Amino acid sequence: MAETNNANVQEQDINQLLQVRREKLAALQEAGRDPFRHTKYDVTHHSTQIKEGFEELEGRSVSVAGRIMSKRVMGKASFCNIQDLPGNIQVYVARDSIGEESYADFKKYDVGDLVGVTGEVFKTKTGEITVHASSVTLLSKSLQILPEKYHGLTNTDIRYRQRYTDLIMNQEVKETFVKRSKIISAIRRYLEGEGFLEVETPMLVANAGGAAARPFETHYNALDEDVKLRISLELYLKRLIVGGLERVFEIGRVFRNEGLDTRHNPEFTLMELYQAYTDYYGMMELTENMFRYVAQEVCGTTLIPYAEEMIDLGKPFARITMVDAVKQYAGVDFDQIPDTEAAKRIADEKGVHYEARHQKGDILNLFFEEFVEEHLIQPTFLMDHPVEVSPLTKRKPDKPDYVERFELFIYGREMCNAYSELNDPIDQRERFRAQEAALAAGDEEANTTDEDFMNALEIGMPPTGGIGYGIDRLVMLLTNSPAIRDVLLFPTMRTLE
To answer: Which pTM value belongs to this model?
Structure first.
């Protein structure tokens, strides 16, 4: 009962504080000083510019703007700390400098209010770089109460739902998303330097192909047609390769109707690129070079801390086939397994769960997921997948049950997926038929035949290398973030009742 009473008292206290804020706003509006009337404020410097350029700026007038994060009123003079995009800075507010009326107003400002400050830069006796205010302007009134400063906002559910509050209270969160933007910009610079053209393709499609995933479905009212949200960028980008755009890439949202965990969100950012007249070895070279470039540009190093590991992007990435990886970590050599029935017997012995429809190649892939993935900590190209799990990939000439495909693994996580793209329309149609049979057998993630894409292949697509990168996982790596929700500004959340 005592806890309930305490909670009620706390709620009443909060309600009273919120009411006081509204009363302060009403008083300002009645006095003709509505803070929401301001449409602009001329900012000359950010907090970090003042601190880093103190020797040049000392004694000069600057204008900064930001949110009041703390405030100490001491009679005729006060201090406050304001936070802007890159950081925060102390402000000294004296009655004799800004005038009695303005000082009386300042004393009523609340933590969370947005202000503009003009004043001279100086250093206090304790050595803190500070702005001595000559004017303080209330730019926006905060009607809510921020979390307590020293404990911050730690509840992850609230942090994800109220990202705006998370960004205010946790500077490292803000830095993560600034870094995310820099990562995407660096990717664009690298690819444009390699002659790639950035393009845009449809999000609403009649046939959601290019990946093993369940699509979201919606309806075009104007056309009276059911459509799907894209699950990949692949099939439209390949159409552009057919059309003669030899190097193309797209960075965009894709949507997969699947579960949520630390590595998956139903909508996420994918970057896919396709390059004519190369193969998956060319994609390996591009990937190594791009990862190193982005890490150096954004982090200033190719040695990246992640969790308890140091990931070395500077060394040549390891390469291993799926068959050799399973042989190494599971002790099973699939080159010595003659057929599907033998593969199922081995799976039963090893406790690997499979479905009745699965073929030998599917079971090899299950063995990889069960026994190998977690061991691939340093950058490793996992190569030469079975054809059963690679419906859009060119077969290996010397081993037609396998394809020219790789996935890059870092810290046991798939970072990208690449192929020597299948450009044989006859083989591609057979692969689609096999996918449709899998769909009929219960595989809800199987592809269906895309007739317009087949028409493009029949016109003729050159030998092509293609790759898809999960941008969110790359951001996780380069920001040392444990979960995908930590690098999505607004992750998918269950709606509160």
So the answer is: 0.91
